[in-house]
Design brief:
Length: 258
């Protein structure tokens, strides 16, 4: 039994599943999103007008999820990548957005998954893919919390007693975040790839939907529009990555004597 695998039947299996997906999430999640976007046939939900409203709401939900991730990272960054493919924390993070919810990054991920599902509008995504993602996210949370409980003991138990597992205590946001400084450099630096991937996904999902209904010959204008915006996003992304690697942007200027 490892530190992140407590004894106890279903809970132990759930933690084991979470540990597995923690190791492989960077490859599995984007691949599954891409495959479902390409292969899942969309349907008009209700009327075309209602369907368009739901798709637009999906864009808002997905962007809200990305905003939650940016907000979280800018106030207090954690070792979200773990260590050697395993859950890891050098210290217990409980400031910033983590004082409002114990899992703000997974909350953001869940909102992104729900938003993209609404934009895709495919029954199989609603019925199979979205539940799969939500089950995986709860397993990831179980694995991380099992590790934190073992590593930090009573300190973590006190934290759990004070802060909700997922739903943020929004009524406390002003008092918790009001006196803190937000580091946009860290937020954008750490989220460049996720943000670029989300924007490209939101560009292409409507085009793929239109292709299912109209065929490739009926979406020529959409393809040109999507290709142009994709090139613009990727060009901006490449430029920002270059500035990041050469430390010309996203890093605080060190003043003499500081």
């Amino acid at each position: 039994m490892t530190a992140a695998q407590p004894a106890g039947g279903w809970r132990a299996r759930n933690v084991a599943v979470g540990n597995y997906f923690f190791r492989h999430r960077n490859a599995i999640f984007p691949t599954l999103f891409a495959l479902t976007a390409l292969l899942a046939r969309p349907r008009i939900i209700g009327t075309p007008a209602l369907d368009a409203v739901l798709a637009g709401a999906g864009v808002v939900v997905a962007l809200a999820g990305q905003a939650a991730r940016l907000l979280t990272i800018g106030y207090e960054y954690i070792e979200r990548g773990g260590k050697e493919g395993k859950v890891y924390a050098s210290h217990l993070v409980h400031g910033g957005v983590y004082a409002l919810t114990r899992n703000p990054m997974y909350l953001g991920n869940g909102l992104i998954a729900v938003g993209l599902t609404m934009v895709a509008g495919a029954p199989v995504v609603y019925a199979v893919v979205l539940p799969f993602f939500l089950l995986v996210y709860q397993a990831l949370i179980a694995a991380e919390e099992a590790y934190l409980r073992q590593r930090f003991g009573a300190e973590y138990e006190r934290y759990c007693a004070q802060v909700n597992q997922l739903w943020p205590a929004l009524h406390r946001a002003r008092s918790v975040l009001g006196g803190l400084s937000y580091d946009w450099r860290v937020a954008v630096r750490k989220e460049l790839s996720t943000l670029a991937g989300l924007l490209v996904g939101l560009i292409w999902l409507p085009v793929l939907r239109a292709c299912w209904f109209l065929g490739w010959s009926g979406v020529t204008g959409h393809l040109i529009w999507a290709a142009g915006w994709t090139i613009a996003v990727l060009a901006l992304y490449g430029w920002l990555v270059y500035l990041k690697k050469t430390r010309q942007l996203f890093y605080a200027v060190e003043t003499e004597g500081a």
